[in-house]
Amino acid sequence: MRFALHFGGPDLPARRLRDLLAERVEGVPAGGRILFATYYFRDRDLARRLVAARQRGVDVRVVLDGHPRTPRANRGVVELLRGPQGLGSGFRLSRSRSDGSRLGKLLRPRLHEKLYVFSHPKPAAFIGSFNPSGDEPEEAPEVIAEIQDQDRGHNLLLELAEPAVVAALSVHAEQLQRERFAWFARFGNDANRSHRFGDLELHFRPRLRSDPLRDLLAGLGAGVRLRLCASHLSGRTATREFAALLRRGAQLEILSEATPRRVPPETERALVGAGARLRRIAHPEGLPMHNKFLLIEGPSRRVSVLGSFNWTEPSLRLNREIGIVCSDPKLFDALAARWEILDGMAQGPARRRA
């Protein structure tokens, strides 16, 4: 598989992933194409670069969640992209009539994917955990205090360069642009197909049929080691399925975000009580641990899982999410190396070493 793995974090240059996206935007010439689909987008300089790309003849399309958890977060970028000198029909907010209601807040599928596709200098698609949610100068520090600083926190983007994979993700991004009824996405072919490309399987949520990742976990047991890096971990479904996996004899190590809202103490108690090792990654400036990946290591195979999804009820059942399951050994090794660095930053019981 042709790929590159890009990390962000307080141990790396600030705004590294944001600058990567900005560089790729600048590299697309007239006649090229840029597709963005993401949850938080607050970086006005990056938004201006997208507008400038459109003005030089690039087909630029951006779709954002129209009612994120912090509703005012994207306001500045939305004003730029939908303004008279913005992206015109190339910009859309994913919204529902029920957004303002309590029921809508609980049940509406969020557009939680992070997907960035570029036609030049060579076709590439980026997926992962990173939202361009910082801004410089920062005029709303209270928003950053609430959603945390993604530009300096732990994040990752996987750059995929296989033409067939890029083509499939481009088609998906176009579908997100056209989609008007997000609730019905689970009935579509795109969500329920298995998109296989050699050693990589691409999947989308929400789904009507069974989830390939959860099916994979349900078949694991004794002799398997799992290392989960989770920014959000809560709810009955994830707790129940991981506890069942532990009862079958698997080993589970978890590196989690430090904030109790994202990983509640009751979830930690339940999983540790079932036999998991859970350590939290805290930073003195409150920088987030926003990585989302899973390493599965058994007697006969090693599998990497990553994407935009959280181990929460909304991500498992409602949200528009994107992820991969991949058996490429180089991807596994790269994620495992990052895991070791993160494990060295974590708080909690140290791993027992032979």
Write the layout of secondary structure elements.
Layout: E1 3-8, H1 16-26, E2 33-38, H2 44-55, E3 59-65, H3 75-82, E4 91-94, H4 102-107, E5 115-118, E6 124-128, H5 141-147, E7 155-160, H6 163-178, H7 189-192, E8 195-197, E9 200-205, H8 212-218, E10 225-230, H9 236-247, E11 251-257, H10 265-273, E12 277-281, E13 292-297, E14 302-307, H11 313-317, E15 321-326, H12 329-345
Parallel strand pairs: 2-3, 3-4, 10-11, 11-12
Antiparallel strand pairs: 1-7, 2-5, 5-6, 6-7, 8-9, 9-15, 10-13, 13-14, 14-15
Helix pairs in contact: 1-2, 2-3
- Here the CATH topology of the largest domain equals Endonuclease, Chain A
**Uncertain regions spanning at least 5 consecutive residues:** none
CATH class of the largest domain: Alpha Beta
What is the CATH architecture descriptor of the largest domain?
Answer: 2-Layer Sandwich
The CATH homology group name of the largest domain: Endonuclease Chain A
Question: In percent, how much strand structure appears in the residues?
Answer: 15-25%
The residue fraction in helices comes out at 25-40%
Shape type: globular
Listing every helix as H and every strand as E from the N terminus to the C terminus, the arrangement reads EHEHEHEHEEHEHHEEHEHEHEEEHEH
Q: Calculate the terminal CA-CA distance, rounded to whole Å.
A: 34 Å
- Tally of individual domains: 2
Rg over C-alpha atoms, rounded to the nearest angstrom: 19 Å
Arrangement of strands in the largest sheet: 8-9-15-14-13-10-11-12
Per DSSP E runs of 2 or more residues, the count of β-strands stands at 15
Total helices: the number is 12
Residue-averaged pLDDT, rounded?
92
Question: Helix- and strand-based class?
Answer: alpha+beta
Main beta-sheet annotation: 8 strands, mixed
